[in-house]
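Sample entry (116 residues):
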Amino acid sequence: MTETENERVYPLMWVQIDPSSVDGNQILENYTVVFCDLVHPDESDENEVLSDQKQIALDFISYLKASEDVVKTMNVVKSSSLTPFTEKWEDVLSGWIITIQIRQPFIYDLCSVPII
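Predicted structure, serialized as C-alpha cells:
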C-alpha cells in the first residue's frame, strides 16, 4: 500500500503471502491479492468500481502467466479464485480478492545448508 502522511492512495493493490508448502521437488507459494477502490458515499459507482477492479485483477493474472516466458522456472497455477466484496474496511471499499498459487522448483541441496 502506498501511503503519504497516513493518506492511502486508491485504487489499491495489496498482496499477502499465505501459507506455502514444499511438494516433492516444488515449492508451492500461495498469495491473496486484493484489488479495490473507493466507492461514492451513495454507492452510485459501485458496479463500475467492481467492474474496473475485476478487469485489473484479470489483467494481473494474465501478466503473471505471460511472465512465465521470462522466468522459465515459475509456473502460475491456472485456477485462481476471484471473490467480490463491497463496503469493506474503514474506507468503504469495493473490489475483488484473488488467490494465486505459484510453483517453482526446489532442489534438496545439502551442500548449501549453513551447518558445520
